[in-house]
Amino acid sequence: MALGAPRRGLLLLLMALGLTQSDPVRPYRGPLVTCTCENPHCRGPTCQGAWCTVVLVREEGRHPQEHRGCGNLHPELCNGRPTEFVNHYCCYSPLCNYNVSLVLEATRTPSEQPGVDGQLPLVLGPVLALLALVALGALGLWHVRRRQEKHRGLHSELGESSIILKASEQGDSMLGDLLDSDCTTGSGSGLPFLVQRTVARQVALVECVGKGRYGEVWRGLWHGESVAVKIFSSRDEQSWFRETEIYNTVLLRHDNILGFIASDMTSRNSSTQLWLITHYHEHGSLYDFLQRQTLEPQLALKLAVSAACGLAHLHVEIFGTQGKPAIAHRDLKSRNVLVKSNLQCCIADLGLAVMHSQGSDYLDIGNNPRVGTKRYMAPEVLDEQIRTDCFESYKWTDIWAFGLVLWEITRRTIINGIVEDYRPPFYDAVPNDPSFEDMKKVVCVDQQTPTIPNRLAADPVLSGLAQMMRECWYTNPSARLTALRIKKTLQKLSNSPEEPKVIH
Predict the structure, then answer these.
(1) From the annotation, which residues make up the binding site for ATP?
(2) Of 214, 249, 279, which one is at a domain's C-terminal end?
(3) Of 202, 394, 408, 463, most Cβ neighbours within 10 A?
(4) What is the pLDDT of residues 99-131, one digit of tens each?
(5) How many domains does the chain have?
(6) What number is the average pLDDT over the span 410-421?
(7) Which phi and psi (to 5°) does residue 278 adopt?
(8) What is the CATH number of the domain that holds 228?
């Protein structure tokens, strides 16, 4: 393309790079990746394609413009050299183009510009940083004025990210208005990436509150309020990518789903760390809570119904611009359910989740080699008979696991003065860290399910929970209850006016 060539030529090149919506042709039929979409033709903050792209366009008489999007056509362009008009960069993992900047290349002459050739050009210039801070400062002032009018001084200005904290009426440490439509990307998927990164860099780690194969969970402080920081181990990088992808592309704002704040790849102590920042709940996981507390029947029911509400929200597809695909969790267990200060549950850890939309009939299973927790695996998973191409199959495995979580809750419930110590499901049949074969023998060969104590029949609430467990554990997956049916049945059981209490 010669200097002074018509803009039509540039438009054709952008079309070839996947940065316009003008061309409906999508011949690629392989697995898709979700990419950051930042160009005038984006219909949302993300798009899906065969690869992700960043394109720097320099037009005569205009400032250089950076565009991000998805590529599906002309893969040969990914290997091309930069020209005096265009630099381009391609990558192939979820959201890999969001933290890439080519903007400094605009200051070089064509002869000085290095070829990208697949190298990650992570160049963020001081000018861009200054502009970002100025923009965030202006945005902050505007938000503060709106919040002061709206909430009459309940909030305060807390830094250049313009996000405001408040304590909820229940006492939860929450980022108030975090997912207010005023602050989101417009798709209902959460905060803009730049604000997420700003928040992440302002968090101070205070104490480690949990460790596992996935990494660590810390309590952090952001402007004096507690947040949870999940730091993923390097071997679980795909789980971080998956949770980041789902939280940033799906409307998951719900009382019984762990509240997402930010995700960032940050450098601490000379090493790269993968952070997921969420609301902090001091009671910890349901697993931890049940170790410490015994329950009255009404509290047991409150825990169960709130967890069911979270699972039903995941499983349902919501249509419309502010909707969400159906999601199956695939690793539901008491360690992945948190207890809030109002004694309701919320579901966490979406690193293995699968998504499905009826309209496109596209099943997005992600790219995570990690498998679920063996102790909670349904029989069809253990004997490798699950239909991996059928989304309903994954929902049915969640229901099996939910029945096991109900069993854990009912063991710790007092009936006629009797209560049992906490034990995990199948504690009396398999070792502490059971193998796949251990679980397969017990669940598939011997067809065992956890023993339901006879004492549950003495209480109408727990009797209802006992029957529900049985209907979650049918060997035939399609015969199991749905999450919506579980939710409605539990809500009918919870009509008692008695306020649930923790018994020490």
Answers:
(1) 230
(2) 279
(3) 394
(4) 888 875 444 444 444 444 444 444 455 556 666
(5) 3
(6) 95
(7) -135, 175
(8) 3.30.200.20
Give yes or no: residues 445 and 317 share one domain.
Answer: yes
As given in the structure block, the two tokens for residue 4 are 């002074």
Residues 398 and 249 grouped into a single domain: no
> Are residues 413 and 377 part of one domain?
yes
- Tokens matching residue 218: 């810390």
Rounded to an integer, what distance in angstroms lies between the CA atom of residue 339 and that of residue 287?
Answer: 9
Tens digits of per-residue pLDDT, 433-447? 999 999 999 999 999
Query: What is the full DSSP assignment across 246-300?
Result: HHHHS----TTBPPEEEEEEEEETTEEEEEEEEEB-TT-BHHHHHHH-EE-HHHH
Binding site residue list: 230
For strand 260-268 and strand 271-279, is the pairing parallel, antiparallel, or unpaired?
antiparallel
Give the range of the structural domain holding residue 73, as residue numbers without chain letter: 30-97
| End position of a domain, from candidates 243, 263, 279 | 279
CA dihedral 14, 362, 249, 303 (to 10 degrees): 180
CA gap 125, 503 in Å, rounded: 57
In terms of pLDDT, which residue wins out, 140 or 340?
340
Q: Which of 147, 262, 137, 247 is nearest to 187 (CA)?
A: 247
**10 found inside a domain:** no
Q: What is the pLDDT of residues 447-493, one digit of tens each?
A: 999 999 999 999 999 999 999 999 999 999 999 999 999 999 999 99
Quote the strand ranges of 105-182, DSSP E: 166-167, 173-174
Please give the structure tokens belonging to residue 425.
Answer: 């499901």
Report the 10 Å Cβ neighbour count for 110.
11
Residue 26: predicted pLDDT:
45
Task: Check: CB of residue 77 under 8 Å from CB of residue 89.
Answer: no
pLDDT of residue 83: 64
Using CA atoms, how far residue 243 sits from 252, 274, 312, 365, in Å, is: 11, 11, 19, 12
Catalytic residues: 331
Q: Of 338, 327, 212, 241, which is closest to residue 280 (Cα–Cα)? A: 338
